[in-house]
Amino acid sequence: MPWIQIKINTTGSHAEQLAEALEETGAVSVTFQDTHDNPVYEPLPGETRLWGDTDIIGLFDAETDMATVVTMMAAHPLLGEGFHHKIEQIEDKDWEREWMDNFHPMRFGERLWICPSWRDVPDANAVNVMLDPGLAFGTGTHPTTSLCLTWLDGLDLEGKTVIDFGCGSGILAIAALKLGASRAIGIDIDPQAIQASRDNAARNGVADKLELYLPHEQPENLQADVVVANILAGPLRELAPLIRVLPVAGGELGLSGILASQAESVCEAYAQHFVLDPVAEKEEWCRITGKRHHP
């Protein structure tokens, strides 16, 4: 069915209230978009990430009288007459098919492929991880995930234990297992991510080798040969005391979810405990890797 949308520019502090007002006018969905096109990450449970300059997009049935919607929104105390907005018609498509057509098998490093279930596997002899886009973040399409997958592909994981800190969809832990790791441990604050990781591990035949924990459930003194954390620069700095003790002495650490401009500050949080490699960059994002010092 055809749709029409209204885009309203506002500030982060006003976005929630205006979103509620759009829903009251009949919007079937309301989304937030950074006016400056900053990257958007999956929010924490119960959290909505907002920005200083935010566009609110309300989606309506194309039969909706948008003049009435504009009049109702103009009466809102945060807007008023002449508020900045844009109304656009949305092309009527088979959105499910459109969405599926955008995902193709992707290769990382020398051996590893991430393949959606509805596509043919390009190389049956490769290391193939079957993963469909879902509710938890992590399908391989984002540069940060790509950087981590390529790094894992280049390691000798045979018989190793791997911790995926902030596991999301489980893509990194599952890839590590299929690349030869004997055990993987996924940790995430979101129960939805734990379920997604469990489902994806079962689909890939590695559920018996993957342990999953919410932070308060994880075993004490947990350590692994390889630790990867693809989250955000802020948490990587704040949680450094927890993350940097996870690799064993001589163990590998891989950090991503970091803009190139943030790399130096993240490196500083780990440099005392690790021999760090040169920072790897891809599309303004970067990956920090290194080995933990021996005592």
Automatic annotation (TrEMBL):
The keyword Cytoplasm applies. It is found in: Cytoplasm. It catalyses: L-lysyl-[protein] + 3 S-adenosyl-L-methionine = N(6),N(6),N(6)-trimethyl-L-lysyl-[protein] + 3 S-adenosyl-L-homocysteine + 3 H(+). Its EC number is 2.1.1.-. Pfam families: PrmA. GO terms for cellular component: cytosol; ribosome. InterPro entries: Ribosomal_L11_MeTrfase_PrmA, Ribosomal_PrmA_MeTrfase, SAM-dependent_MTases_sf. One of its GO terms (molecular function) is protein-lysine N-methyltransferase activity. The keyword Ribosomal protein applies. Keywords: Cytoplasm, Methyltransferase, Ribonucleoprotein, Ribosomal protein, S-adenosyl-L-methionine, Transferase. One of its GO terms (biological process) is methylation. S-adenosyl-L-methionine binds at residues 145, 166, 188, 230. Methylates ribosomal protein L11. PANTHER family: ELECTRON TRANSFER FLAVOPROTEIN BETA SUBUNIT LYSINE METHYLTRANSFERASE (PTHR43648). Belongs to the methyltransferase superfamily. PrmA family. This is Ribosomal protein L11 methyltransferase. It comes from Rosenbergiella nectarea. The lineage of its organism: Bacteria, Pseudomonadati, Pseudomonadota, Gammaproteobacteria, Enterobacterales. The gene is prmA.
